[in-house]
Design goal:
Blueprint lengths: L2 H7 L1 H12 L18 H16 L3 E5 L3 E6 L6 E7 L17 E3 L2 E3 L7 H16 L7 E7 L7 H9 L5 E4 L2 E2 L2 E5 L1 E9 L11 E8 L9 E8 L3 H15 L2 E7 L2 E7 L14 H9 L6 H14 L13 E2 L3 E2 L1 E10 L5 E8 L5 H9 L4 E9 L2 E2 L5 H14 L5 E4 L11 E3 L2 E2 L13 E3 H19 L1
Length: 466
């Protein structure tokens, strides 16, 4: 079967339908949510658009209360091959060269929010199913494109969908990298809260009024701000802070008004799967505050940051460092720093632990940090499909036949829809050597990559379901 030729026959339709899909602004909007549109009108519009596309093409479609649904190509048996996609996208942000929902074509690329994550690949997978259907190829297994609507937020769509529908025996998510991602680390989001500390006999002339950095567990904070109150010393701090910035080659600002001084530091944002790709503004500012004679409660809070997180993104200081040969090292990101003078300080932490690891020792270690208590703890367990599994071997064969390149297996610290299935992997659409532009301004997908992925997915669907 010449899968590339079948894709070429449908090239203009694939491009046209990709653009139409990308023009729908499908960002989470809970203010516009309804009973039938639990995540807002935009996401629901994109969801219904895709279902209608499936129905028009002659597939069986199902809407599960607006949370999710599927487009199905029936086989002769009961087993299901799942293709896990999602229609929601992250907010567009600023700085785009063109309208993020115009789906403009420039230099052989389609530019739009969701072009790479995950609307472009979803259309590629849809047309891959359509090619198999149009060719009337005999299938034993049912092929089911499962459509999520809340992947970029809390995965409430997946939870709801699988309460009502059967779990596929195996499948893939076209929502990451080629060749094949077969291992995804466990992901912990936790918050520890400072126990109330009495400071009635405070003798310090400097009070830490507030300290804030970061808003998301899974991002390295790129900005931090602290406010100090004091009757004296504030003018001296300006020079000390300036020396600190210069010595460490950090960008920052200092403001003083009456008896209040405000400090801010700029860092570099990065995804928590590899904190070393960023510069944590919160930890850097804590490094400066650590040199000052602060009040007792603030001193305890800052000391905790320095002693447990400064210069360590692998958990060595907390005795939770661990690695395995499948997925590499544990990573640790202090993503949220939240402190107010009259409230217990909090720290929000994201940990990615190897697939052979265990979250319980991690939980115990963080819960035992002196003067803090565990406030919240969420654990998405690791996901791993063995390299000799038929799913892996089939996808390796398909990828190598279609590209002529070796299908190496990849482990990541991120999480994809593939972990929703016991036997699921992430499979494209980003080809090796291409920059990852998902979630970035001017997000795009190369048209030739879109078509190449469609051919790969078509053969993969047939090989898995025949």
């Amino acid at each position: 079967m010449d899968w590339k030729n079948e894709v070429e026959k449908r090239k203009e339709d694939i491009i046209k339908d990709t653009q139409a899909f990308l023009k729908i602004k499908s960002v989470l909007d809970e203010e516009s949510q309804t009973h039938n549109a639990p995540f807002g009108v935009g996401i629901n519009e994109a969801f219904l658009h895709l279902l209608e596309l499936g129905e028009t093409a002659g597939f069986t479609v199902k809407n599960v209360d607006g949370y999710g649904g599927h487009i199905e190509l029936p086989g002769t048996g009961d087993e299901i091959v799942g293709i896990l996609c999602h229609v929601d996208v992250v907010p567009e942000g600023d700085g785009w060269t063109s309208d993020p929902y115009k789906a403009e074509i420039r230099d052989g690329k389609i530019f739009a929010r969701g072009a790479m994550d995950d609307k472009g690949p979803t259309i590629a997978a849809f047309y891959a199913m359509k090619i198999v259907k149009d060719l009337k190829l005999p299938l034993e297994k049912n092929v089911r494109m499962i459509i999520g609507t809340d992947e970029e937020s809390e995965w409430r769509c997946v939870d709801h969908y699988f309460k009502h529908e059967k779990m596929p025996e195996l499948g893939f998510a076209p929502d990451a990298d080629f060749p094949i991602i077969h291992a995804e680390k466990g992901i912990i989001d936790l918050t520890i809260k400072q126990k109330v500390l009495s400071d009635k006999n405070n003798q310090s002339s400097l009070i830490l009024s507030s300290f804030q950095a970061g808003r998301r567990y899974n991002m390295v904070p790129d900005f931090a701000e602290a406010t100090l109150i004091g009757e004296k010393q504030l003018l001296e701090l300006k020079e000390i802070f300036g020396d600190f910035l210069e010595k460490n080659q950090i960008k920052g600002q200092f403001e003083i008004e009456n008896q209040t001084a405000k400090f801010s530091i700029e860092g570099v944002s990065a995804h928590a799967m590899e904190p070393n790709n960023g510069k944590n503004a919160g930890i850097m500012l804590a490094g400066f505050l650590h040199k000052l004679e602060l009040d007792q409660k603030a001193r305890h809070y800052i000391n905790t940051i320095i002693e447990n997180f400064e210069g360590d993104t692998r958990g060595n200081k907390l005795n939770i460092a661990f690695r395995d040969d499948i997925s590499g090292e544990l990573t640790l990101n202090l993503g949220i720093i939240s402190y107010q003078e009259d409230q217990p300080g909090q720290l929000g932490i994201n940990i990615r632990y190897p697939v052979t690891g265990n979250s319980e020792p991690i939980k115990e270690s963080l819960a035992n940090i002196n003067g803090f208590e565990l406030h919240s703890f969420g654990d998405s367990k690791p996901h791993h499909v063995e390299k000799n599994h038929p799913l892996i071997q089939t996808l390796q064969k398909v990828y190598e036949q279609q590209t002529g390149e070796k299908a190496d297996l990849i482990a990541i610290g991120g999480g994809t829809y593939a972990r929703s299935l016991e036997n699921g992997v992430a499979f494209g659409p980003l080809f090796p050597g291409r920059p990852d532009v998902a979630h970035q301004k001017d997000e795009y997908i190369h048209i030739k990559d879109l078509l190449k992925a469609t051919a790969i997915y078509a053969q993969a669907i047939y090989e898995l379901a025949k």
